[in-house]
Structure formats: C-alpha cells, structure tokens
Amino acid sequence: MTAMLPRILLAVAILAPSTVRAESHINQTDVHELAAALSPQTRIHKAVKFEYGRRRIYSKTREELAEIAAACRAHPNMKITVEGHAFAYDEETSIALGESRASLVRTLLIRYGVAPDNVTAIDASRVGEPGRYVDLVIEDR
Description:
This protein is of the alpha+beta class. It is built from five helices and four strands.
C-alpha cells in the first residue's frame, strides 16, 4: 500500500500531464488509500493550472478533480479548501480572478458529489507564490 501512494498522489496532484495520463483510472482501492493518505491535512499545490487571465479547466484536469471528489465522498468528514491564485496588473483584478477560479473548482467538486458544506472557496492571491493556479487543502475534521 505504501509503495502505491506516491503513484496515486502524482496522479491526483496533476503535476505532469504526461505522467497523469499514464496513471489514469484510479480504482476504488486506490481511492481509499488516497483518502487515508490525506489525513489529517494535505496540500495539493497547483492542483489546477490556468492560462493567464483565464479560468478554463481542461478535461484531463476535470478527470483528476473527479478522482479527488471520489476520495472525499468515501470519507464524508473530509473538508476541502480551494485557494484561488491569480496575478494581474492590479490587486483588485487579481482578487476577483482568484475568487472566480476557486469558485469554479468548488462548483466542479460539488458537481462530482462532494457535499457543498465540505468545500470552501477563497482567494489566496496575496498569499504565497503569485501565479495562475488553484491549491487544494484537504483535511479530515
């Protein structure tokens, strides 16, 4: 089980799209192992990447979000904080885009079956590394 864990986290973290495709279709056992590995708190840094000024999520990323949602559905105490990051010409635009990206990812997770009360979307553009991504913080409460 421990040997499979890096492979599972790599597939979920969406760090290298070519690797993700090779590791697609996490089976139900792997989903339970992933959920166990997420306790008590896990940060998936740059879980979703965006083009500059955009909020489009590609189908490969949607598949990975569906797998994360499946792990969370299997463990209903898990809470997800979606942190949207954006870097624009002014702070106001950055905040609005960061909130919009986080809200979009939250909506998708809910669509994939995560309870709405378990997913929170926030702007984190002024925190951490500026950029075009969304971090997921998953914790077991």
